[in-house]
Amino acid sequence: MCFLNLDEFSLIFGAITGIDMRMITLQKLTLQDYPLIQNMARFYVYDMSRDCGSQEGWELPADGLYECIDLKSYFIKDDRIAYLISAENETAGFALLNKVGAAPYVDWNMGEFFILAKFQRRGFGKESAFKIFDLHPGVWNVMTMPLNQSAHCFWNETINDYTHENFQLAAKTILEPSPHPMNVFEFRSAG
InterPro entries given for it (predicted)? Predict the structure, then answer.
């Protein structure tokens, strides 16, 4: 079996896709970064509205500004981590991790993950997710809303590639903040 180091992988992947994966960086955020992420979350909700917009509660607000739940807990709670994703030396998205999985033994849950439209469908999301999974070993959950087929397809492909098809997928009812259905991917990251 042949293993490539990150530089070799980046050169080969870059030759195929035109993307230098070494240009993707993750920056751990602090409370002072909270407004940036909360502002970007409007675009995150807008993106989700493509798939979820037919569901009640996804109507465009009267002022024309989508709102996202308050994400401040990712900046003040000890069991949460916020990352800014940068690509090609500019902001490309965010990843918000927590330890609130679908089962008590879960180490990490991808609470929220967003890649700006400019960087979507170019490999940046997948490579960012791989880096995050590697940084945080343990049992992972990634959950998608049943109507959000775009997210489901992205995570199915990404987790399948990361784990070499070694993951579970189940429809579950998540109890917090109120009972709601989710598709739950579960897998282990060795880091």
Answer: Acyl_CoA_acyltransferase (IPR016181)
